[in-house]
Amino acid sequence: MKQLAAAHQLVTAVLKGDRRAIARAITLAENGTRETRKTVSLLYPHTGKAQIIGITGPGGVGKSTLVEKLVKELRKRGKTVGVVAVDPTSPFSGGAFLGDRIRMQDLSTDAGVFIRSMATRNNPGGLARATKDAVHILDASGKDVIIVETAGAGQSEVDVIKIAQTIIVILAPGFGDEIQAIKAGIMEIGDIFVVNKADRENADRAVIDIQAMLELSNDEGKWRPAIIKTTATTGEGTAQLLKEIEKHKDHLAKGEAELRQKNIVETELTEAIKQKFTEHLMGELRKSGRMEELVSRVLARDIDPVGAAEELFTEQTGKSGSKAE
User: Fold this and answer.
1) What is the rounded distance in angstroms from the CA atom of residue 203 to the CA atom of residue 231?
2) pLDDT on residue 208
């Protein structure tokens, strides 16, 4: 009862936009406690109002600097902003390697901005498992725009499409990013492409290369991604980028928004089901000693891991069938 009362109290404070309550709720989400699940469940009916922007791209292209300038531009227009910056995990503390202490220090005193760094915690997807919960918490707290900045971890960058409505892919001239982007698959998910550090040589060449690659996959009638040149250190191009973000938002509002949101929710539900079933099954296997038995058989090369999983699947589906009868 005390935990439930505490969750309700925390939810009430988050809905009022209390910064300390928001920070505590996100910390609970990172820790993955039962209290977290109750808090997020209570907040969920109050979500769905924020515009969620995903910013991705290889490391070193200036994502954080551009996010800072973008937030300042949004604040000039009276928008409240939440930023979730997903960083690599520290091998020592398990926390965010960069941390929000050194990110966007100029914005730290702005009551209309909430910034949180989150460690990937070695999640294969490159996004922290609690990132979705953090976005829901910021959404429920009343933030108009939420920006999710990814860690810059190659293939994992495509995971941002599972959470954001508008995806911005940032590249920089002379980094070989175009080839890396193709390999990572992020060219396929971008709604807007940014060539940052446009004051460098070959910036125009980078734009032409991106245009050529987009021509290969462009479908008639669908949104045609814009390519914007920016210099994040000076803020040049930021206003134009925000204009393109608004254009994409208007485009989604004409019909695609509902489909994209349905895909996001379906993916989130699928992952939640997988996690719950896996946790339950692994608990049962360890309790019964079946897990240890299978590990021993795999070590002895009597069976391979996939074969062991198939054997377990057959056993579980057989049990389910017999219960149904």
Assistant:
1) 11
2) 87
Instruction: State the average pLDDT for the chain.
Output: 83
Asked if residue 115 is part of any domain, the answer here is: yes
d(CA 54, CA 237) in angstroms, rounded, equals 18
**Do both 35 and 53 map to the same domain?**
no
Q: What is the pLDDT of residues 213-269, one digit of tens each?
A: 887 765 666 788 999 999 999 999 999 999 999 999 999 998 888 888 898 899 889
Task: Write out the two tokens for 36.
Answer: 């977290």
Gyration radius of the chain's alpha carbons? 22
Torsion of CA 261, 125, 72, 45, to 10 degrees: 40
Amino acid identity for residue 286 in this structure? R
What's the pLDDT score for residue 250? Answer: 93
Quote the pLDDT of residue 172: 86
CA dihedral sign of residues 48, 68, 181, 228: positive
Number of domains within the chain: 3
**232 shares its domain with 165:** yes
133 and 165 both lie in a single domain: yes
Claim to verify: residue 214 and residue 106 sit in the same structural domain: yes
- Full domain range(s) for residue 174: 47-255
Residues 292, 223: one domain?
no
